[in-house]
């Protein structure tokens, strides 16, 4: 069965006729050509496919595109402001929070969601607990945790500065 | 995944009529179990009827000494609810420990209990707290709702609409998660009701799903302390035994988790 799916993807309205069984991650990557969102395990465990749907981090390999019809979807491509990286992206670069980079889009989308939910100034224990749905096979996580901590501290500073 | 037809239901009645006209339909909650199962081609419903956007199935409310949770309420919403953190702290801990943050944003209480995975967390809370499951057809006591591994009393077209939990005097949950899947290897929910009745329910360990431990309940009724359950072990006869742990290992975990849960309940 084919159906028309329409959503806001990184602020732009997109629409396509897809099979009902199409996963959101395939809609994003194949139908819309945004390949920043990765498929790692395809079994809902690794978190490489994490995107935000209506402001919440979800695994886009474990959701149908049809379930996101009418939703607001944010992928890693939608984070930067023009040439200026999002603070979490900048912190991953600064702290060497990646090696091969495959898990990075999911790590970054999970990190942004975690900072939004807990408020800035996260502690290391919370960051490690919150990362349990994201697997990295290169870094041993230390620099990822450092990057998220640095971004959260920096975003707390930015928030104070604007208040 | 085999082909399927997706329907989004606007109301419970709407969903029931979609199910009636489907050849081999399945209700879709958050999809965190059903979609992975379909991707592995272990399930192939002809129709998926999405319940997630039905407004009546959402929300958490407190009235008359009970907390009522709509079936489409996500684990993240339960874990962060102020009402649940104050009235049912054990349930907030439980919901906050299911899967991972992304799974908790999609997975729902109704979907979890309708699936009744023997390693799922919620069944232990419903049984220990003496919850009532409301459907579009009737009300069922938790102990009558869960009937066996992946089995419930639900009819094929029946929809869980909410779960009502009597507010206990004390409650806590402790689980030993499988380090990879986060499913319970053994999870124990302890509750002391407003009338001082004690219930201890175990998930993750039993071959037939959730079960109560009468001996621990009696011991805790006269002495609410971790020491009261420390010497009580469950028989490993009907426990799960798999690559992750033997029945004897799980039996030991049940005692350890029960001690931790009682300590956490205070």
TrEMBL record, chain B:
It comes from the Bacteria. Residues 1-170 form the FAD-binding PCMH-type domain. Transmembrane segments: none annotated. GO terms for molecular function: FAD binding; oxidoreductase activity. Keywords: FAD, Flavoprotein, Oxidoreductase. This is Xanthine dehydrogenase family protein subunit M. It comes from Roseibium aggregatum.
């Amino acid at each position: 069965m084919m159906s028309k799916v329409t959503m806001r993807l990184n602020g732009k309205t997109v629409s396509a006729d897809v099979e009902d069984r199409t996963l959101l991650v395939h809609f994003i990557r194949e139908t819309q050509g945004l390949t920043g969102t990765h498929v790692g395990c395809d079994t809902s465990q690794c978190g490489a496919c994490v995107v935000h749907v209506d402001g919440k981090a979800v695994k886009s390999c474990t959701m149908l595109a049809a379930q996101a019809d009418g939703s607001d979807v944010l992928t890693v491509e939608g984070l930067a402001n023009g040439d200026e990286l999002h603070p979490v992206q900048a912190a991953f670069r600064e702290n060497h929070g990646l090696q091969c980079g495959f898990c990075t889009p999911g790590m970054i989308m999970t990190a942004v969601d975690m900072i939004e939910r807990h408020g800035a100034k996260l502690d290391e224990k919370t960051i490690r607990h919150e990362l349990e749905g994201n697997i990295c096979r290169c870094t041993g996580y230390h620099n990822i945790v450092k990057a998220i901590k640095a971004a959260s501290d920096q975003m707390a500073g930015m928030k104070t500065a604007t208040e | 995944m085999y082909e399927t037809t997706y329907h989004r239901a606007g109301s419970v009645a709407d969903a029931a009529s979609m199910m009636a006209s489907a050849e081999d339909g399945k209700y879709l909650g958050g999809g965190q179990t059903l979609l992975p199962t379909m991707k592995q081609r272990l399930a192939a419903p002809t129709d998926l009827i999405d319940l997630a956007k039905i407004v009546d199935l959402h929300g958490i409310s407190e009235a008359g000494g009970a907390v009522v949770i709509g079936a489409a309420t996500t684990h993240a919403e339960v874990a962060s609810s102020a009402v649940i953190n104050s009235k049912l702290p054990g349930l907030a801990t439980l919901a906050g420990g299911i899967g991972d943050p992304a799974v908790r944003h999609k997975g729902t209480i109704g979907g979890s209990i309708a699936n009744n995975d023997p390693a799922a967390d919620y069944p232990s809370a419903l049984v220990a707290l003496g919850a009532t499951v409301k459907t579009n057809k009737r009300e069922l006591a938790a102990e009558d709702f869960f009937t066996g591994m992946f089995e419930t009393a639900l009819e094929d077209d029946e929809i869980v609409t909410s779960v009502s939990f009597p507010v206990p005097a004390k409650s806590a949950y402790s689980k030993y998660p499988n380090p990879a899947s986060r499913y319970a290897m053994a999870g124990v929910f302890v509750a002391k009701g407003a009338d001082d009745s004690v219930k201890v329910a175990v998930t993750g360990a039993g071959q037939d799903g959730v079960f109560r431990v009468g001996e621990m309940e009696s011991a805790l009724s006269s002495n609410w302390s971790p020491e009261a359950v420390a010497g009580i072990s469950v028989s490993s006869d009907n426990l799960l035994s798999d690559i992750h742990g033997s029945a004897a290992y799980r039996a030991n975990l049940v005692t350890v988790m029960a001690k931790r849960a009682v300590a956490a309940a205070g």
